[in-house]
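Design request, tokens follow.
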């Protein structure tokens, strides 16, 4: 949105207002008799000047066009008698003055500003010149009479009217009635009307006359005369009677009210009631009276459009927003906000001393003059003059304001709570507020708006300001309405004379509960605050708002490491307000708790979550306020002095203070600490949290940690397999559970028993096996690939889970898997014997019963029992055992040694089969699974690869389909040749 110009850069004030010399209220009054006899100022006696400064409102246009039409002799769609009712702006006397100048000047008025529209509405070509009579009830004195030199003395309203209409000739028609003070009837009235021209009779403030002379019966005679005058005018073609009944400053007696009702009923019966000035035209009326120029209409329209667009967008939150007319309302009121003008009509009009025209014009003149001064223009660049900009700090303005209210009793509330003193509550709140609120002076504006909308709480049924009214009058396109709630809370909690009831606000005369709170707050002891803080904090953390938080253990205010148990379950450690996040003392305490549990090291470090508070001042203050409100509520003597509204407010304040204390503590615990994957404590800042973020602090913490995968409610079997320790085949169920609370590499299980569901699902889905061990330590598969419920899962060191592959092995019955021949590498001499044995193992590595093995050997002979006799050929030979389709080999070295004469070996010569002196031989024989061959080379053989004495013999067998065997044998021979090895591959 384009930047809107401030109002003072668009409109031009009258010179006296620019110089801060606003006129007195009397300058805005129009006195019809003074206009008639030329005593009024030029603004009113000079007809053209008067119309230049007069805005022809819809109601004035309607009245004037009908009067002009009637004076022109047109009786269709018009009336001869008008009963004027008034509301603020373009008052009755002003309208009567306009009619007076039109009728007196006739066709000369055609060229005046605004008259063309009157002629167009009247459908006549020119204003007819007419005889005009003016009767002012406040001016005409029936005891002294009226009449100058050479004029008859006139003591009656009808005598005065006749004289003004036609001089001596008209007066003669009612002269007898004048002398005897008897009201004339139709014939006499028709006789006093001029015959050569139309007649306009203007009567103002008639109740003032009736009230003054009620004891003499003159009021009744005026009523009778007016009744006959109206009836007679209705029968004439070019006579109009315009009457204004009430007296603007008159305090009515019951008799006055009765007379007003009687006159009104009669005039409404004989004529037409007409309401002067519509609220959409008030702005133009005021502009004519207060401003030399309305300035750029483009800027005014731009501002009105921006505010209208904003108002329509937020219509549900505002009041009185009609999409079709709202832009015109802003434009019509410019440079004022419509609420400034409408509040006087909506709220203030019923005040006994309120002057709808002159008094308010005086206020607005002071208003714009004050805000137009340089120092105030620098402080604000508002596009519109709003209620919030009323200069309540100006003593002259306040005096004029209180005059309209009829009392200055609100001087103290205004200067204490809003403006007028340097430490006024609204001013102080703005100074302490966030930048946006401070710059907008939002506390001052809202408080001032409440003052105007609540009518000061003065004797009008405690009129108040609703939240929609406050929003409408205070905010605009560039304002943040979300700030209002906090501003109202601040004002309500601080101001001494502001009363709030069910989201409605008013300023009153009696000090409110805030003053009592100030004294009670100071009496609250720090020990009581600390005790309540602990109670509330524990309540906030213990609150169960969901299934998740019930699984978390809470430990409060630990001072030593053994204050927190070492358990395989999530534990939320809540630190006190004196243990603030970021302090070294706090960090040291958490480190000590994570590292140890008393004198022992802590196993389940990852199970710990720490909640640490921010700075504690706000929380302690809120708790102190709650305790102070409780103290007031418990004081029966104080409560007796409160009225019903204050007692209700006390309960609301008490509840609000309790909520504020809870909220302050909730917001304080925004820091969470836990063990990171690097095995060091790390912090998580939850940000600007509020109680609306979650049902409890614990729930909020768990939710954030789940979002970051630090906590999980369930772990899938597949994920458990990924976490499997590489050193384990079977994993105790207790160890599997505990791993999620001891290793920060894993997400913490919200519920320790969730591992049961994981195991049960894994067994049911075939991802895991469930096993125990027999007394000999051998694994026994209990469940695999069958339905299992979590209630059947036992968490123990003696119950195990297996990966699927290992479970499959346990599920098969024992079968012969491998053979082992012993000894593996004996060394003997030719002709000597060695006995070989053969043992068997099953697929689980357990001994397998073997009845008989078939023996074969090279380099010697071997019996069926495994007895080998070495032959004469020295060298390395093979002994083979076969059983159940399995084969095992052993090596036998036949070594011959040279003998010295006399036999025996040379001194120091090793015996056959023994290594050379100072050396040892290591041997290994076993089956290597194909998938581990590369690892076998890397981890076992690579370290000996540079030794020239390393001997490696490979033997492999693989059964193949007969159709594939030849091709595979050929490929094998090719590979062996490429490696330079013996390519003798047998096929059987």
């Amino acid at each position: 949105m384009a930047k809107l110009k401030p109002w003072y850069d668009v409109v031009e004030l009258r010179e006296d207002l620019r110089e801060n010399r606003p006129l007195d209220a009397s300058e805005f009054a129009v006195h019809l008799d003074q206009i008639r006899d030329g005593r009024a100022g030029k603004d009113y006696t000079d007809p053209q000047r008067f119309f230049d400064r007069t805005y022809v409102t819809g109601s004035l246009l309607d009245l004037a066009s009908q009067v002009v039409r009637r004076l022109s002799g047109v009786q269709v769609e018009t009336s001869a008698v008008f009963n004027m009712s008034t509301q603020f702006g373009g008052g009755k006397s002003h309208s009567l003055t306009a009619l007076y100048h039109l009728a007196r000047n006739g066709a000369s008025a055609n060229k005046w500003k605004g008259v063309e529209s009157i002629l167009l509405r009247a459908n006549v070509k020119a204003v007819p010149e007419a005889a005009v009579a003016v009767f002012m009830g406040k001016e005409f004195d029936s005891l002294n009479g009226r009449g100058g030199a050479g004029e008859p003395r006139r003591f009656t309203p009808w005598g005065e009217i006749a004289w003004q209409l036609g001089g001596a000739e008209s007066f003669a028609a009612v002269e007898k009635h004048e002398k005897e003070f008897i009201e004339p009837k139709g014939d006499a009235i028709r006789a006093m009307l001029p015959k050569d021209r139309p007649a306009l009779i203007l009567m103002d403030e008639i109740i003032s006359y009736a009230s003054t002379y009620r004891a003499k019966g003159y009021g009744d005679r005026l009523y009778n005369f007016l009744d006959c005058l109206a009836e007679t005018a209705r029968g004439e073609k070019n006579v109009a009677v315009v009457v204004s009944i009430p007296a603007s400053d008159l305090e009515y007696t019951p008799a006055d009210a009765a007379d007003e009702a009687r006159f009104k009923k009669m005039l409404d019966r004989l004529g037409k009631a007409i309401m002067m000035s519509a609220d959409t035209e008030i702005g133009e009326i005021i502009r004519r009276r207060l401003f030399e120029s309305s300035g750029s209409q483009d800027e005014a329209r731009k501002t009105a459009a921006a505010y209208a667009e904003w108002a329509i967008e937020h219509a549900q939150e505002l009041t009185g927003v009609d999409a079709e007319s709202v832009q015109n309302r802003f434009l019509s009121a410019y440079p004022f906000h419509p609420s400034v003008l409408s509040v006087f009509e909506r709220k203030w009009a019923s005040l006994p001393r309120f002057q709808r025209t002159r008094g308010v014009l005086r206020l607005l003149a002071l208003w714009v003059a004050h805000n137009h001064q340089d120092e105030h223009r620098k402080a604000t660049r508002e596009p519109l003059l709003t209620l919030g900009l009323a200069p309540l700090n100006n003593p002259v303005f306040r005096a004029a304001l209180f005059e309209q209210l009829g009392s200055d009793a609100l001087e103290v509330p205004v200067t204490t709570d809003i403006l007028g003193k340097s430490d006024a509550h609204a001013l102080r709140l703005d100074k302490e507020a966030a930048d946006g609120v401070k710059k907008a002076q939002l506390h001052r504006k809202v408080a001032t708006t409440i003052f105007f909308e609540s009518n000061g709480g003065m004797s009008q049924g405690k009129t108040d300001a609703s939240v929609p009214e406050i929003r409408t009058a205070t905010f605009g396109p560039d304002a943040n309405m979300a700030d209002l709630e906090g501003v109202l809370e601040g004002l309500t909690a601080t101001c001494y004379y502001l009363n709030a009831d069910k989201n409605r606000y008013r300023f009153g005369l009696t000090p409110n509960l805030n003053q009592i709170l100030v004294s009670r707050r100071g009496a609250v002891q720090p020990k009581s605050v600390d005790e309540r803080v602990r109670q509330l904090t524990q309540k906030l953390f213990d609150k169960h708002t969901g299934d998740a938080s019930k699984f978390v253990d809470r430990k409060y205010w630990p001072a030593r490491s053994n204050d927190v148990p070492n358990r395989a379950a999530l534990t939320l450690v809540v630190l006190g307000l004196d243990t603030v996040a970021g302090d070294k003392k706090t960090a040291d305490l958490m480190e000590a708790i994570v590292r140890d549990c008393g004198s022992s090291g802590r196993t389940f470090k990852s199970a710990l979550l720490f909640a640490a508070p921010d700075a504690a001042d706000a929380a302690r203050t809120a708790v102190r306020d709650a305790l102070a409100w409780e103290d007031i509520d418990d004081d029966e003597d104080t409560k007796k002095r409160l009225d019903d509204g204050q007692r209700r407010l006390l309960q609301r304040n008490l509840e609000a203070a309790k909520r504020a204390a809870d909220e302050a503590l909730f917001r304080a615990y925004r820091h969470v600490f836990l063990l990171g994957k690097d095995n060091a404590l790390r912090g998580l800042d939850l940000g600007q949290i509020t109680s609306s973020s979650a049902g409890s602090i614990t729930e909020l913490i768990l939710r954030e940690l789940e979002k970051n995968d630090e906590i999980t409610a369930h772990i899938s079997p597949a994920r458990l397999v990924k976490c499997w320790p590489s050193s384990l085949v079977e994993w105790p169920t207790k160890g599997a559970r505990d791993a999620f609370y001891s290793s920060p590499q894993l997400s913490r299980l919200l519920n320790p028993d969730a591992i049961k569901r994981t195991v049960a699902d894994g067994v049911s889905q075939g991802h895991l096996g469930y096993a125990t061990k027999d007394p000999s330590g051998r694994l026994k598969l209990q469940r695999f690939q069958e339905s299992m419920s979590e209630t059947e899962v036992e968490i123990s060191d003696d119950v195990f889970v297996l990966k699927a592959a290992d479970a499959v092995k346990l599920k098969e019955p024992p079968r012969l898997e491998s053979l082992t021949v012993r000894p593996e590498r004996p060394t003997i001499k030719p002709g000597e014997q060695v006995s070989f044995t053969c043992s068997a193992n099953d697929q689980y590595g357990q001994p397998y019963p073997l009845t008989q093995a078939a023996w074969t050997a090279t380099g010697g002979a071997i019996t069926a029992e495994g007895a080998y006799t070495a032959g004469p050929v020295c060298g390395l030979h093979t002994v083979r055992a076969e059983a159940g389709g399995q084969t095992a080999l052993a090596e036998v070295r036949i070594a011959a040694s040279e003998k010295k004469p006399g036999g025996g070996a040379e001194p120091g010569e090793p015996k056959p089969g023994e290594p050379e002196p100072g050396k040892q031989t290591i041997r290994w024989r076993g089956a290597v699974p194909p998938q581990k061959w590369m690892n076998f080379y890397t981890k076992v053989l690579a370290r000996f690869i540079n030794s020239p004495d390393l001997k490696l013999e490979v033997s492999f067998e693989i059964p193949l389909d007969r159709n594939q065997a030849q091709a595979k044998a050929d490929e094998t021979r090719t590979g062996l040749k490429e490696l330079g090895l013996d390519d003798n591959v047998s096929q059987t």
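Comment from the thread starter after seeing the answer: thanks! The domain at 58-277 is CATH 3.40.50 (Rossmann fold).
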